[in-house]
Amino acid sequence: MPSSQFAQKERYRYLNGFGSYHESEAIEGALPVGANSPQKPPYGLYAEKLSGTAFTAPRHENQQTWMYRILPTCGHANFEPREHSTYNTNPENKPYEKIHHIPNQLRWDPFDMDETVDWVHSLHLVAGAGDPTMKTGLGMYIYAAGKDMDAHEAFYSADGDFLIVPQHGVLDIQTEFGHIFVRPNEICVIPRGVKYRVTLPEGPVRGYILELYQGHFTLPELGPIGSNGLANARDFQAPVAAFEEDTSSTWHILCKFAGHLFSAKQTHTPFDVVAWHGNYYPYKYDLGRFNTIGTISYDHPDPSIFTVLTAQSDHPGTAIADFVIFPPRWLVAEDTFRPPWYHRNTMSEFMGLIQGEYDAKTAGGFQPAGASLHNVMAGHGPDAATHKKASEADLKPAKVGAGSMAFMFESCLMVGVTDWGLRKCKKVQEDYNAESWEPLKPRFKRPEKKSE
């Protein structure tokens, strides 16, 4: 069956379909019929609209959801700065921390687990480009948490959409729309502005996040592939409505705004949405369901053939962010160097490894929970050991990546690295080039001169 075999059993039910217009109600009849904002919504609920795009965005791009909740979101005290001198995830405009734009190839050892912090305080910006205040660019994070968020605490980012890639441990995410259970080899997208709370039912967690400041993720165009393939729309899952009734407890709403953390108090739960309908909601996807497309004749295709989600710039075919995976797959190309070729790219490539061994890096330096960054025009490709092995391999049909899942955050932007990513985390491999490519030897041989 084309799906992942998870160690943890699914906890919740979902609605299926990517970009679909869904509706869900936890109490039958809670959704108004034929109107979005009636004078008196059913059961005394309040109607509230959540817009992920401008009201006047083209119909095919417009994203919005109507919620029917016990109390509206606006009922809270003022937001106040929280940990303002130390909590800053803005990749530009850091008064105490510099972004480093460097051409070197970078690779990180596995990032440490941290059992002392919750989800919000586990976020470490490794690299990024742009500015969330201008809704341009993206941020690339590592998260590593060991504690549940407080029982009366919720978080949202006003800066962008979170694409969450778990590497270790499971996330039980309570959102305004309902519950999502996310395991390694699944991904989850939490759109800008959606409030949620993260608990860790099986202990410490670790993984990667791409925060998209600009636009939203879509499925890539399939072109000559046809109507199905890669990530199929039917395999994306959105939560069903589930609500709490609490109008007396003190809640703290944490907000990431322009990279800084703010907090506001309110006397009601944010998870009080009894029903909703729309096309702006969180969702998850099992990477094991990806329908891999590849050559059945010769040459290694461009890695774009492995794109799960994309966020396009204003220039079609050029992405602010692509999420690309390298799953288990068959290689059958004849007379072909089968791993990815050596290349330099106008795009930036940040790679991570969820599990197993990536087939283009077999020398051991690229490990699960580690990462690499090959910035704009930085040369990269298979390490010397992989090149030697692939150059001498018997070209029979072979399955690569069994038990493995590598991924890439790719962007047209030149990505800068934070002080934390370059120095404070103490995970940068100083011998990356020396181990990977400096051992490559010249193989060129001039043709023998013909005798007179």
Automatic annotation (TrEMBL):
<dbReference type="Pfam" id="PF20510">
    <property type="entry name" value="HgmA_N"/>
</dbReference>
<dbReference type="InterPro" id="IPR014710">
    <property type="entry name" value="RmlC-like_jellyroll"/>
</dbReference>
<dbReference type="GO" id="GO:0006572">
    <property type="term" value="P:L-tyrosine catabolic process"/>
</dbReference>
<dbReference type="GO" id="GO:0006559">
    <property type="term" value="P:L-phenylalanine catabolic process"/>
</dbReference>
<feature type="active site" description="Proton acceptor">
    <location>
        <position position="300"/>
    </location>
</feature>
<feature type="binding site">
    <location>
        <position position="343"/>
    </location>
    <ligand>
        <name>Fe cation</name>
    </ligand>
</feature>
<dbReference type="GO" id="GO:0004411">
    <property type="term" value="F:homogentisate 1,2-dioxygenase activity"/>
</dbReference>
<comment type="pathway">
    <text>Amino-acid degradation; L-phenylalanine degradation; acetoacetate and fumarate from L-phenylalanine: step 4/6.</text>
</comment>
<dbReference type="GO" id="GO:0005737">
    <property type="term" value="C:cytoplasm"/>
</dbReference>
<keyword id="KW-0828">Tyrosine catabolism</keyword>
<feature type="domain" description="Homogentisate 1,2-dioxygenase C-terminal">
    <location>
        <begin position="289"/>
        <end position="443"/>
    </location>
</feature>
<dbReference type="InterPro" id="IPR046452">
    <property type="entry name" value="HgmA_N"/>
</dbReference>
<dbReference type="InterPro" id="IPR005708">
    <property type="entry name" value="Homogentis_dOase"/>
</dbReference>
<dbReference type="InterPro" id="IPR046451">
    <property type="entry name" value="HgmA_C"/>
</dbReference>
<feature type="binding site">
    <location>
        <position position="349"/>
    </location>
    <ligand>
        <name>Fe cation</name>
    </ligand>
</feature>
<dbReference type="InterPro" id="IPR011051">
    <property type="entry name" value="RmlC_Cupin_sf"/>
</dbReference>
<keyword id="KW-0479">Metal-binding</keyword>
<keyword id="KW-0223">Dioxygenase</keyword>
<keyword id="KW-0560">Oxidoreductase</keyword>
<keyword id="KW-0408">Iron</keyword>
<feature type="binding site">
    <location>
        <position position="380"/>
    </location>
    <ligand>
        <name>homogentisate</name>
    </ligand>
</feature>
<protein>
    <recommendedName>
        <fullName>homogentisate 1,2-dioxygenase</fullName>
        <ecNumber>1.13.11.5</ecNumber>
    </recommendedName>
</protein>
<feature type="binding site">
    <location>
        <position position="380"/>
    </location>
    <ligand>
        <name>Fe cation</name>
    </ligand>
</feature>
<feature type="binding site">
    <location>
        <position position="358"/>
    </location>
    <ligand>
        <name>homogentisate</name>
    </ligand>
</feature>
<dbReference type="Pfam" id="PF04209">
    <property type="entry name" value="HgmA_C"/>
</dbReference>
<keyword id="KW-0585">Phenylalanine catabolism</keyword>
<comment type="similarity">
    <text>Belongs to the homogentisate dioxygenase family.</text>
</comment>
<dbReference type="GO" id="GO:0046872">
    <property type="term" value="F:metal ion binding"/>
</dbReference>
<feature type="domain" description="Homogentisate 1,2-dioxygenase N-terminal">
    <location>
        <begin position="13"/>
        <end position="287"/>
    </location>
</feature>
